[in-house]
Fold:
Amino acid sequence: MDRIKMFYSNLDTKPRILINHFSRYLGFYVEDIAENTRESDVESLIDVYIVSDAYVKQSGQSLDIKNKEKTIMIYMDGWISNEQEKIRYILYDGLSDEEFLKQLWQSMSDILSARLNVSRRLIGNLAVANQTIPLFIKMYVNNDILQMAVFSRCTPAHRDMFRMAARNYINFIREIEELSSHFLEDKLIKYMELLALYEIDMICIVNSYQIYKLPEVVQEKCEELLREYADNEELHIIRADISLHLNGVWKQAGNEFLDIRLKECAYACLQRGNIQRNFVRDRDAALYEYESAVEKKRDYFIAWFQMGECAKEQMEYRKAVKAYSKVVEILKERRRNHVLAPQEIKYHFKAALEIANIYEVVFQDLVLARKYAKLSQIVRKETGSPGYFRAVWDDETALKMFFPVIKNKLNEELDAYVKQTGLEEKVYYGHRGNQN
Structure:
């Protein structure tokens, strides 16, 4: 399996999401291990530890490193170890994204060179990879691909933001194609193009624009690679995502997310749960999948929220409150540090409102109802905090151009949720009788 295990604190925003997204472009599946998450039994190729003030506070002064030969330490906040001569490490503070990714790749390459006999992988010839990946890193950083993916793919973006994302991705894809023309037999470059095509199509769909590349073309590129790299987890995830999100064939996607290679994949569990809940209408099966997802990734707030929704629909209100409360708990420190992502604000806000509504209407506990209603208002104020934007996109021009429109778009989505659910009338304006 082409798997990286990453140990981190969820307060360390930029290195965590940068490593995750970049590694995906190298064909690696990243297993996120934060706080109380149980590490899977699946063997990893590489283990990455992001050591920061937050991580040390979370995990203590000592680390349980199982295999130093395949470990990379990412030191932040001035941390360093007496073991640095024995373990590969990167001093993250002050590095540009390009320099950090080049050092990360060099450490990965050193580890892979000693493990060439492990399995067939997309990174085949390391001599070629050591030529192509530094070039890819420059293209990835110069086109702001991480930022485009984060701010344009997960939620509808402002028109100007979408146009920039589309322009950057199209240029990125052309540069990958140009790179491929010089390394015709390199399958990793073909995979990079596949993932970029899938991501730009998802950006187009989320933003209600015509897709860039026909889904059947993207799917065929994926199937071609899968025929040669059947054990690659990321290829199986992309194939299932294409079926679900680009082609809209949920039955096929459900079967693909059931592939044995995705047995330990929290994202696959989440998507199977969504399919069971939204299409099959089997809430018991959906709950089982959501529970499997959070067992594999304890800070998976999206899965916890969906578990709450499912339990609420079954009128299991205490179970719903427990699940919604996990969303609040997971995101609490990120809220206090003003680094909530737009998606995190949405789920945090919704979870607080849902808890308030249940306490008010079902349990008739107005004290707790008011507490969580107030919390939802506190969370909503985080739409005005640029902390996450600055962490991910350290560009003052971009901040001035795009943060205000992202803020406005997010507030529109929260307004729409309140209107759709009718929770605002119950929580903010009272209901039967006098609450004072």
